[in-house]
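Recap quiz, item 2
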Amino acid sequence: MRTVTITPDFTSWRDHARQLLAQAVPPEEILWTDDAHGSLFSTPDAPAPAPGGPAPRVPTAFLDLARTAAAHTAPLRWAVLYRLLWRLTRGGQPHLLSLPTDRDVRLVHDWCRAISRDIHKMHAFVRFRLMGTDEATGREQFAAWFEPEHRILPLAAPFFEKRFAGMDWSILTPHQCAHWDGHTLHFTPGVPRSAAPDGDALDDLWRTYYRSIFNPARLKVKAMQSEMPKKYWKNLPEAPLISELIAGSGQRVRTMLDTAPTPVRPAPKNAYLDSLRRLGDTPPTAPGETPEAAS
Amino acid sequence: MELTRKLQILADAAKYDASCASSGAARKNSAGSTGVGSTGGAGICHSYAPDGRCISLLKVLLTNACLYDCHYCINRRSSNVQRARFTPDEVVSLTLDFYKRNYIEGLFLSSGIIQSADHTMELVISVARKLREDFHFRGYIHLKTIPEASPALIELAGRFADRISINIELPSQESLDTLAPEKNLTRTQAAMGHIREKIDERRAEKPKPGAPKPPPFATGQSTQMLVGADASTDATILHRADHLYTGFHLRRVYYSGFSPIPDPSKLLPLKPPPLVREHRLYQADWLLRFYDFKVGELTTGAEPNLDLDLDPKLAWALRNRATFPADVNKVPRETLLRVPGLGVRNVDRILSARRHTRLRLADLVLLRLPMKKVMPFIIAADHSPARLGLDSDSLRSRFLPPPRQLELDFGPPASTPGDLLSVRSGEL
């Protein structure tokens, strides 16, 4: 049995896995551990092992899966990924990935699903706060705090780079931070919550919108929570409104149902409405035929 | 009027439109520009309201003043609702400010009809034009268009928008005549046909070397139908939807269960339909688009409405028991798609797995199929449903929801009237 320590990221695992595979070390002889203090920014104690011999050929689908699953926090991920790699190459099961009923495949797929969801939710729930304007460049500068479940920032950040190219921004998380200045995306170590801004002047207007777009006659709290779980609420400026909106909805619906209906009134005299009546089933086909008000 | 108050009124006025999609736009982003924005791929829901609906776009009306008198609508001219009007610049800065804070994917702009269709369209278009041309905004824009607007203006709207839509509102002209006297089904469908042509034109253009690129146009159109405000059956609604999908290639038909509004009209039913009806229509719509079902299979002459207690695929399977059981190791894809409880993704997993292995129940459990629902309808390597199962009259009752299905854990008052319960029901 040998112990292999991963820094923990995909490249570190891949370098080790390549060498172990070249040496034909079977999965059951390896104990994989995460370097507890490791991060993208620490140098591993041991130099990265040199790849031995030609890299084994694996389906590109496996590389995609492994790269994604590596961001998961499950301690078993390195072992399961190596076992899959072994079975795909030396185990004589090259078709393994098309077997969704295999337990290892299923597990890795589940991890990847969790990562995709985490990334998707990060894209959705990051809230930028305006910090100021850079005097030299005139660019607005924003910062956001987010707590992803997994180590997804490097996977999630390119989306923000493409979307918010025209502004400077930083996304701060406990593990890592990402920064964009209009030219490069770079990463720095994680920071505590206290380093991040708390609110934004626009939050009140956003809460006004949130309150107004809610329809009290369609209360579906479970549906909301399955898509926006409570763990995200603490960093969402609109979340403090949720309980009051739910509590008030019953009364609002009763008031609507109790309101006496407004009687139908005859149509007012209006040239445009008259022109609509004349149109009947004939659609306007050219600008000249468009009904126009006389007013 | 201050901006906060306008936003209250004009978001409240827009919330009855169910559409919130921000997916399916052409791929574009702000890389290398001074603006912000990106689209393409799956849309993002940036928040959820306690009504379970996704908040993806800043969904507002430019004004809720309206010449029309659609009786289901809070903004109809005979409603006593307070009126407000944004200036185009106010909508532009709200959109950009919200977008930069990552609250939203973009803008969904609609408007009450003021003066004329063309005048209203011009105002709506001016907002989109400013966003795109003055601020290089590359985020999602959905514009509501008016069928009576001139084709040139609809084309202009399509040039700035990722999606345009016209609400059909009700499935028949008779219903429109009663509830929305200014609206006309034929004119609406003619405008949809025109939009379809534009979308097709843009898609068909192959960039010939040297040829100028065709002007951009929205990549899709959608519509909304109101459910429960008139007497239309689900069969009528689904036939209309099917016609819109096949005739005009709509991306989506949204079904919006008519919801109580402040200041209701006398012409409206007193009670809104149960929310579950809308849900069943969405399920049926899905079966039409992705499972190759026909409207005539989902509703019947004797039962023109969908079963509220059972999902429409299960209801169909129970009416067509002779089709089952289906052997998951043998039957073709189209048959697997008809098995209750089997979705497209799991059908594809089954097809992939069975090339290498004979599927047993344990494999299906690993795929997390809803086994209780699936088992009576399938054969697996180690499972054959009891004949009694499929033939038995009790099969339907096995799938009925338990008698108490309401979720009332958020504490409505004990004196809740019965009609309120039905408003709140349907949480699935």
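Chain B is about 40% helix and 10% strand.
Residues 185-204 of chain B form the longest helix (20 residues).
End of item.
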